[in-house]
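User: I want to check something. If I give you two sequences, will you return the structure for each one separately, not as a complex?

Assistant: Yes, each is folded on its own. Here is the first sequence with its structure:
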Amino acid sequence: MTTVSFEPPYSADRIAQLLDWSRSHQTPCPAAELTHLEHLAGAIAASDAGAAADLATKLEAVRTDCAGWLRAALLEASGCASDAAAVLHLLREKGAGEERGSMMLASARNLFAAGRMDEVWYPLREACKASAAPRTLRNAARLLAQARKQAEAPFRRRCRVALLSSTTIDFLPPILRAQCFGHGIDAEIYAGPFNQFEQEILQADSGLARFLPDIIAICTGWRWLGLRDEEGSPGEIVRERVARLESLWREARARFGAAVIQFNFEVPAFDAFGHLSAGLSGGRGRLLRAINLALWEAAAHTQGVIILDVDQTAARFGKDRWHDAVMWHTAKQYPSAEAMPALGHQLTAMLRAILGLTSKCVALDLDGVLWGGVIGEDGLAGIKLGGGPAGEAYVDFQRYLKSLAGTGVLLAVCSKNNPEDALLPFRQHPEMVLREEDFTVMVANWNAKDENLREIAAKLNIGLDAVVFVDDNPAERSRVRQILPEVEVPEMPADPALYVSTLSRLGVFETLTITQEDRLRTMSIRENLERKALEASAGSVDDYLAQLDIKVQLLPFDEANLPRIVQLINKTNQFNLTTRRRTDAEVRALMTAGAYTQAMRVRDRFGDSGLTGVLIAIPEGEGLRIDTWLMSCRVLGRRLEEVVFAALVRYAAESRRKNITAEYIPTSKNHLVADLYARLGCTQTNCDGDRRIFRWNTDHGFPFPPMIACEELPAAIEV
């Protein structure tokens, strides 16, 4: 595209030329053109306010997106923020990528200037998610800081993140702050001094020690390793470098109880040895790969340590652009300023995983998403699936989704289709990779997609903010974004060959571990639907529970179950009395300090639900205080809370504890358990704002439900 250029003075003829250009320019403007038009509008308004107002009025009748953007920019430059926001509201859902980021940021900026604070957060969040441009993200971070001075921003989690680097990464904190906001994270960021990450962790009076981080990112660049082109003792070097980092992990975990994100090492694009750098036993390229593998292995055996794959991130971004030799020699900046958003995006994905914000479900349209064509019109033989480039792309996407389901992500169908047509390919097409049993919920009807997404979330008992909606229709995507802004709606490309990379780049499915419960989640959800069918046919709740043949095992926390326990603590929202998030180091500290811990495993006639309940109670004075109590939504409605509480009461009595105190701290998602302690018979003793305190005297026992078989592996009884 030829960039339109109009230099001052802005005569009537020049303004007329710009108006003609706007009328003839039918194609969407790329981000660079939007920026240029924005600057041009500012220059016109500064030079001749009357000409700017006149041009804005004339552009109102021009129905192109570029004309709308120019009009909004003229109105903003003229101080008419509310009018500019109205124009941008019609444009902001039309763009994709950087264009969407620019339009969303302009919308948020004008809404802020107009004082419409409640409307600022959505476009600002979308700008932070859509853009990978350093300038846009830095501007978004500045607007976020300004907006937070006037109103409370919506966040799902808060955390304190320390960036400790062997290089200069001063450009990263504002970019990361914006990207975290895009995903609902309030990130307070500390950037340690250049190349002082070891001292920061080890010294008692360091800035890190004063900051008290929740998460520490050790941002080491490959040069820190000090590797020569070829080393004589490669095995010894790998062991020494990895051991040095492992020592820092242990110290960071012991001193701060923080999760540690360790950057691995980019294999640089340029090496004097060329391809032999990876071929020679002591070549630097080979050593870097060996060190990276050793870091993965070490982290797998160290609780609370996660490896961020910088080498993969750099390769995806493009290693020639990842490194800026001029800025390295000038300021020791690494990676390049251009690459900082890619690094921040991957770091944000890791933070999401640590904070329990991994997306739980992919809701998929069918026509144009899982196969080409329209099954209701083209028939089984007419859809594109295998047998050629386009059809093979859909097969490849299905394979990706099936693998994703293997990590615990739930698959659902959300399609406008006749149900019998929708099921036909799953049952009869030989090239289908996905089958009915791979989906937890299949909703095919002619209702609005937003209604069906609500139904899917309700059936799965998850929040809408845990759902990713994939649809090839821009109109459907736009409608869902506007009606259900909490749902993640990626902008899908026209070519299905790009579906896998588009969904993968979101970074919303990153997880810290894959447990057995994760691998069996789809089966578990389907079993739950069978339980609901049984419940509907049973005469009473107790009759239903008796028919389920429930068997519960209660056991103290142990090493084998700790990853799943920590995962539940950080992901469970609905049945969660306090919603306290804990790192594994914090859980270990509570175990060491003598807390009562109880993990619950559940199985019944339909299957094994696995480890789905957690309780932690802390000795205080003559009693116990329930610090954490949560259960997975998959096992609710079975009187299991009575089993858990009965076991706790018995333990407290046997330990000569006189009472149990408990608290309910309300959140936006845990209203389900607002009356739990009252239903159990506890007495409310205090109310501190929304926080309510309850007590149970242990001279009163609490009965186990008779229709549930419970096996207890005893916790240590205090004497």
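And separately, the second sequence with its own structure:
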Amino acid sequence: MSTILYGNLRVEIFDDLGARVSRLSMRAANPPQRRPGPAQRAGLAIPPGRDVQLNDAYAAIRALRPIEFTAACGYGKTTLLRHLADNAVYNGASDVSVYLRTGAEDPADIVQRLFAELYLADPPVKPTAEQCAELVRHTRPLIVLDDVQLSPGAVESLAGLLAGCGLVLGSGRPVLGRRGTSQALPGLPDAAALALLTHELGRPLADGELTSARQLVAAVDGQPLHLRQAAALVQETRQSLADLARIAARDASELDRLSVNRLAVQERRALAVLALAGGALLPAELVGAMGDVATIALSLEQLRRRGLAERQADRFGLPVCKVASYRAMVARDVQLATAARAIFDWLASRDPTSADSLSAVGGALAIIEWAADSGDWPVVASLARVAEPVLTLAGRWEASQHVLGLGYQAAKAAADHAAQALFGHQLGTLALCRDELESARRLLTEALRLREQLGDAPGAAVTRQNLALLLPAPAAPPSDPPPPRRDRAGRAGGPGRRALLAGVSLLAVLLVAWIGVRTLAATSPPAKTKATSSISPTPHGNGSTSPDGNGPTTPDGNGPTTPSGGGGASTTPPAVTPTVSPANVGSADISTGSTPASQVVDITNPGTVPLPITSATVSGTGFSATTGNGMCSTTGTTILVSGETCTVTVQFAPTVIGANTGTLTVDYGTDQTDSVQLTGTGYVMLTVSPTGNNISSVSDSALGLSCPGTCSVTIDSTANAPFTLTENPGDGYDFFSWGGACSGASATCDIYATQLTGDLTVSASFSPTTQ
């Protein structure tokens, strides 16, 4: 059994039974304590060729101005960011630093991870996102977030929470917006690139190799990753630098393929496991078990030396940007069932709060997503059972809810009613802790029904206890009536709200006393601002359905209910207008394989009576929607009580650039449907890379482009097409030729509207002036 406190609720997790919630009385508790910082180390050697970027980063950190470094895979973002995090204290930029790889993780979970990196709490507690951010800001750390895959809107929200901290981001595309400074990370300058190549070869360049080495550096645009791969290939094969320079000039990604093709069977299995884990950093022992690799230490070291894997402390993983391409090359070298069983056994046999479990859960999440996409529901259900407690106890409740939703879907698809009851119980318990009382009542009631039908007495008892927290307290004996419990404004509170408000008051008092600041925000997050849309439904009926919309109706505290679709007496409450926000889904790259834009759209009932929504669907080219527990149902009826919100996660994967429109349609179970227009913008990314030196450039005034090194710009309109790129040789250099989406040797290159069907790359080669 493991425990976490939230407000004055104690959440205890039991194997196979789920979480039991109990209310605590007001009590003295230890406030969170700062973790001791690592011992100060001497200044680390500056990564070759990165002096300018480091100086810019330190200036931004001291000014408390966020800064991001963007680049495609292999340009050394992680090396730069790790150096900043490891060297910040010695450099005097910060008293403490935290480095996290975040991917597409929800901002609320990111600040929870930051809190856990900086503080110790006994017993473990989960503050709200606002409280976590307040505590993090109090330490004034340098926060370094790598592999950020959030939307610009989510990054803006996160940067707002962390205002007052040094913030450095690494991403494949600009996401920081107007909150800070964005820099495209170029390839290494020639001298630094040649020095890296020589170091990786372990010997000086031989006579006649210098010219080939320079050609190789130009062909890979100074990418450190490709230079490491090339050095390993020269050492292990008969290929020369000249051979590799010719190959890279045609397609630099061929160096990846050549490197993978050289791997032995054990090494391919290890690489396949790391690719399956989606970039998560895993212990070597776990990688060996998942891939059945006997020589795992040697295999991982070989992968690292060849530039195919990276190591951080005793953990190994892949650059996130390489996961998809490596999966395609080595997916057949590992058995999904074997890997899933190994990570299941690893998590099931360890303390869910341990560092080993926290490290492995990222790999489990990646495998769950992979298995869900391929419809392998038994793998999804089994891994969700062991991954969810790790996430819940770590306070990463957004990820926990997502995993539980997939687990519930898997259990339903497999007709595993025991697992469906467990996942429904956990979802309801999470809703209870968040004070989402109607959702909690609906989910827990359905879980109790299933457990009672299955004869699961221990499980039913746990579910029944959690449900009891949603019911009014029993009447006191007439002879000794206690005074009613009321909030500070003299209002009687519901059971969930009383529990949360009491806990928040206690936690706020403790935190104020400890950090000497004003009272922290209340436990429930502030309501989101709603953009009201013209939807005028005619709601009808009372009651709520089981989580899948197909089970019997359950009480909602307002009297008897009838199954959705009629068959009993019902009343028709006055029409209300729900609020829908936001309507702008965001921007997304139109290139094949790009990550769609994603936006959670809230539908809220502002009225005083329940509002039934039978479906909420999305239409329009490029627009789609996902739904699940906690979201507006696509089947059955979702009952929104007064002030309650359900959500539709809208994804936008455009196929053309420019403004696109879609429609969110809400059905109220009658002949009436209403709709809201959704908007999104498609774009392509143009990447321009001057090669041959670091003083020549390429420019375009219409795009605001001026690139002395590799840089990228988004194009979301054809209004100013064609776009004219102009070469600008530096002193002592002449323009040689265009490459990529441009060709020839004229002084300018036009990018036409007909070319804007996917991301474009343009290279401009410069050579020394012939004397």
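Because they were folded independently, the notes below concern the second chain alone. The mean pLDDT is 80. The longest strand covers residues 673-691.
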